[in-house]
Amino acid sequence: xxxxxxxxxxxxxxxxxxxxxxxxxxxxxxxxxxxxxxxxxxxxxxxxxxxxxxxxxxxxxxxxxxxxxxxxxxxxxxxxxxx
Length: 83
Hints:
mainly beta
């Protein structure tokens, strides 16, 4: 079996948030929202992904969204990405 590896690299500008707060206590929608300050970064970030021909984990792993494990990692259908 021939294994096909495809690698793609993409770049985009970025933003570094220094201060951020959500204002949602008001009953008026015009008084709700968020406020913050930050820096725009021209160089941004670069991400590289590689398709290795399989979406099955080689070893059993688990995903955690907090301090406890929520569910075991499983196969992902082609075209779906969960972060």
